[in-house]
Specification:
With about 190 residues, the protein is an all-alpha fold. The chain has 2 domains: about 55 residues, no CATH class; about 130 residues, no CATH class. Helix content is about 60%, strand content about 0%. The chain is elongated, with a radius of gyration of 31 Å. The two termini are about 25 Å apart.
Amino acid sequence: MRVENIQRTTPVATTDKIEAEKKIDSKTEAKDTQTTNETPAAVYEKTEQKETSHVYDKNTILKLKRQSQEAHSQLIRLVQEMLKRQGKSLELLGADEIVEVDETARLEAKALIGPDGPLGAEAVSQRLVDFAIAISGGDKSKVETLRSAIEQGFKEAEKILGELPDVSKETYKLTMEKLDAWAKEE
């Protein structure tokens, strides 16, 4: 949480000002015993402020967002090229029209979700964990909240798809293992 637009307040009196006033007052008191010595109702003493706002790793989040967008773009390009080879396009595709996945698209998709692909279980699980660590600011006390959020995301995907594909199940498993490993790190 970040607190913004808070107006700075000026101190009623600083400790230096009070000390100076005491010196003046003691001199004045010696001259005029009837002068009353008034002190301010509040004293401002500057202390070190602790950072209470939530800190997250913005650079890592931006990097991960870029990587995800690049992988998504590759997937969109794959579908567009497959449709083009069949003389079709997304814009002209009818709702009931059946599109056959050709061998070229199948091999490209297999490479994307393969072990070394940008949409493979290893790469996606690492991006998920890196994002979780970045958004938590590296605060391991938030690991259960992060785990719960990731779990909820996979459940939502399963509702949409009916059943998760094997690559997604593997991604989930690797993600939870990596979160556990991070939580146990010293």
